[in-house]
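Moderator note: this is an archived Q&A kept for reference. The question asked for a predicted structure of one protein chain; the sequence and the answer are reproduced below.
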Amino acid sequence: MNQHLTFAPANDSLWEQYDQLATRAYGHPVGDITHLREHADLQVAVRGGRVVAGGLGLLVDQFFGGASVPSACLGDGCVAPEERGEHLAADMATERLRPLIERGAVISTIVTSSTGYARRLGWEAPTGVLAWTVATDDLRHSFDNEDFEAEHGLTDEAEALQRDLARQWNGPVHRPTWWPGGSTTRATSPPTASPGQATPPPASSA
């Protein structure tokens, strides 16, 4: 690993390389790398002309303290197995946050199963993320009198109620219309979202 390491925003070639690296690192294809390509920022680490680490970043609105604020949402990050153990993930987090902070992010969320790793990098309050889907027909069976009417899809009233409820919690993401699954005020994908101030952590913290 004595070749020079560089960090860069991904062009088309580097994006394809990262997709292949993520598949190798996770053991399966990562759908978000394809689905979010037009909307996400992808920063990568390159050594000897080869992508060895990287991750996606999204600038989205997130509710904290009753207000919707710009948030840097990081996910789908990985480091090549042969590059692990050199604190590259910490350096990569700094590089991934930088362009989102420049675009206005004031808080950050990382979606990760490694809560200890996230705490060492400066994130706080690891939070389990849950979501429920209830079929419309099941609702009809539960509310079958004339006082209730069940409809497919979100009504304007339901969306307004979602936003009102979201303001009472710290962490719900106001999903843009291009977010997979549609535009709803819901938390980010499982398993863990850890909110923290959107400042790049020092590399020595890992």
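Archived answer notes: The mean pLDDT is 80.
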